[in-house]
Amino acid sequence: MPPSAAAVTGDLLRILRDQLGDRVTAAQAVRDHHSRGESYHTPAAPDIVAYPRTTSEISAIVRSAAERDVPIVPFGAGTSLEGQVLALRGGLCVDLTQMNQVLRVSVDDLDATVQAGVTHRQLNRHLANTGLTFFVDPGADATLGGMAATGASGTTAVRYGTMRENVRGLTVVLADGRVITTGGRARKSSAGYDLTRLFVGSEGTLGIISEIIVRLHPLPEAVAAAVCTFPTIDSAVKTVIATIQLGVPVARIELLDEVQMDAINRFSTLEYPVRPTLFFEFHGHTEREVGDQAETAQALAAENAGAGFEWVTRLEDRARLWRARHDSYYASLALRPGAKAWTTDACVPISRLADCIVQSKRDLDESPLSGTLVGHVGDGNFHMLYLVDPDNPAEMAEARRLNERLVHRAIEMGGTCSGEHGVGIGKMGYLAREHGEGLDAMRAIKQALDPRGLMNPGKIL
Predict the structure, then answer these.
(1) 61 and 13 in contact (C-beta within 8 Å)?
(2) Which of 25, 141, 332, 347 has the most neighbouring CB atoms within 10 Å?
(3) Closest CA to 356 of 414, 421, 409
């Protein structure tokens, strides 16, 4: 007779305590903390939580779990939005937050090697006085391992790229405990399959990322930020399209709709016009260079009825201007105290961005739900946030309907169901429509690397 699940869990807990001491636990409070991310999805707790500090410890942990057929779920800062960290089948949660060492920085080569639990803010603090920075910023202080696993991006992706463009190599622990390295520090390579980009965006379903080689960028010598309001979403997006098509090297272009601006005014005691609004940031070598960029953007905005274009260069003024964008998530939640955020995203070719946003906004306006829109619109990516009561089936069904219409619309326009949040469990149902027969190739890769389905089961596929 095979051992019970409780017996297997107890046996694994004893083994892991021999390996990690008090860095493994089955305490209910810790399990509850690891049962959820930052989303509306129903929590699902692991049976055990382990805190490794090295790649070799992860390897030993995974090997012990695999020998007992125990599911394994990687966990970083818990900021995922599509249920990537939920332990749907219980098992072992591998919390990487104690793997928080910056292992190497090369100023000459513009790269660094970090452990997976280092957050992007921690890395940038470490880079102080080097003249370098890491630009990928998803908003939350996420771990770089989690950002790589979900293919994260953020406000600066329009100029500096996403994690796919900023990860040069990885160290990964596979489902059987083997350790592999992918990529490297060379600027380019044509040697073999691109395993780095296979694991970037794999959401822990193929292995656990333990170390990352990231690309760094010089800090800009001059920065300007600007804000401008528009009579309609369409006129704001047309300004974005014109800015990109003209080749203005803008570092950020963020769109906030009128509902989001009203929420920010209330939350942060600001007085912005309650209209669709664009926030810009320009980087360059001189103030003249960024001034030229800002003046070009101002002229393009004026052609689309933009008003109140204000641009600033001093750090404190830029921080004040960007405060509105940084407060957007919690400002939205404050519109309906006690509600949860059903946050979704899509990405389309920039030529279809206006149509996609306007139609998605119309759906929300005609819905009984309330919500907001923000977007990293410079690269065609935007987010809808629906405010819901998770215990109200009708509201959850309506949010699901709005989300489905948004996703199908984006795919029909040549876009994707997710530009940066990932798939997790929330977007699984749309992959077949987006990828067609390519989904079978993904399943074959999963079967080859994780034949028993132990790595973050129930996600993506």
Answers:
(1) no
(2) 332
(3) 409
- The domain locations on the chain are 5-95, 102-218, 222-329, 336-434
Tokens of 2: 């095979």
Which tokens go with 24? Answer: 């493994």
Q: What is the pTM of this model?
A: 0.94
Mean pLDDT of 287-315: 94
Q: What would the pLDDT profile of 370-386 be if each residue is shown by its tens digit? A: 999 999 888 999 999 99
Question: What contacts 408, CB < 8 A, 6 or more positions away?
Answer: 430, 433
Task: Dump pLDDT digits (tens) for 57-81.
Answer: 999 999 999 999 999 999 999 999 8
Query: At 51, phi and psi to the nearest 5?
Result: -125, 85
DSSP 114: E
CATH architecture of 5-95: 2-Layer Sandwich (3.30)
**Whose CA is closest to 51, among 73, 81, 20, 77?**
20
Classified as helix, coil or strand, 197 is: helix
Residue indicated by tokens 């930052």: 38
Interatomic CA distance for residues 434 and 127, integer angstroms: 39
Q: Same topology for domains 222-329 and 336-434, yes or no?
A: yes
Q: Which of 58, 92, 76, 264 is nearest to 84 (CA)?
A: 76
Beta strand pairing status for 48-50 and 92-95? parallel
How remote is the C-alpha of 403 from its chain's centroid?
A: 18
Q: How many CA atoms lie within 13 Å of 304's alpha carbon, on the beta-carbon side?
A: 25
Kindly state the tokens that stand for 67.
Answer: 């020998």
Q: φ, ψ for residue 266 (rounded to 5)?
A: -70, -45
Q: How would you classify the pairing of strands 250-256 and 370-376?
A: antiparallel
CA-based nearest residue to 408, from 371, 363, 457? 363
Q: How many CA atoms lie within 13 A of 137 on its CB side?
A: 16
List, in sequence order, every residue forming a beta bridge with 372; answer none if it has no partner: 385
In sequence order, what E strands does 348-444 have? 370-376, 381-388
Instruction: For tokens 């920085």, name the residue.
Output: 105
The average confidence (pLDDT) of the chain is: 95
The CA angle 65-29-73, to the nearest 5 degrees, is 30
Assigned CATH topology for domain 102-218: 3.30.465
**pLDDT recorded at residue 382:** 94
CA distances from 402 to 169, 257, 296, 419 (A): 38, 17, 36, 17
Q: Which class is domain 336-434?
A: alpha beta
Q: Domain 222-329 is in which class?
A: alpha beta
Q: How far is it, in rounded angstroms, from Cα 386 to Cα 381?
A: 17
